[in-house]
Amino acid sequence: MPLTHPRLWKALDAAARREGLSASGLAKRAGLDATAFNPSKRFGPGDPPRPRWPSTESLTRVLEVTGLSLAEFAELAEDAPRLKRSVPMLGLAQAGLDGFFDASGFPTGDGWDAVDLPAPTPGLFSLTIQGDSMAPLYREGDRVLVDREGPEPRRGDRVVVCTTGGETVAKE
Length: 172
Known about the structure:
alpha+beta
């Protein structure tokens, strides 16, 4: 659906709520004037009132401070609820044990919990960090998402590797 004036403002309001903020609070966090996203600024003078749109710079700042992608921001404007699907989740310490992955590295067998994610891809699963051997990169209880069908890793990417010795590790 097109990103209309009402939908754009709906997405900004939803982004603010997602951060636990008002529209003014989101504007301030983004380094903008606190009134930039106020309802009173959404229409200008005229009969009928002329719609006012936030600048691309303002939207970019909102995306930066919220960590939202443009696609995620656009989803906030939709009326339909986001689809969720459960993906397998396992403690990282358990992941090194035999029987949890098939030969291609996909989750298999019993012992997996589940976590709901919005519209995940088929090759996605989650691991829960156990212990502090990966601190400060990962802390005890952190969850990492692993996408077996994602792009090839590049230098600096964080990856989960199953070694030939059967150990499963998360590294940068």
